[in-house]
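WARN no homologs supplied; continuing
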Amino acid sequence: QVQLQESGPGLGKPSQTLSPTCSVSGDSITTDSYYWSWSRQPPGKALGWIGYITYSGNTDYRPSLKSRTAISRNTSKNQFTLELRSVTTEHTATYSCARVVAAYEAFTPWGKGTQVPLSH
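OK structure emitted
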């Protein structure tokens, strides 16, 4: 059974860098045909895709966030990490990771998410 668990970054402040990590068990992040994604849901708003890293290490990002976003991975720990730079209070959200079945663009399963409240 594949499970994903987000950790960090906890309470953040504007202009800092958020860097939550997703730990994966039950599957390898280098398994062919899967991508590994990050999404976020601000309070009272819809879930929005941020980006993903593929099984081969390639990345793709939401265009509006591309300039401040990077996703990296640690294959020895089977983890992947989101880096979101120069955040503002508008980036307050629950950040969630998910596995993506590339052929069908199916996001499953999901982690439980980590809440990141940003305050001055």
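The mean pLDDT is 92.
OK
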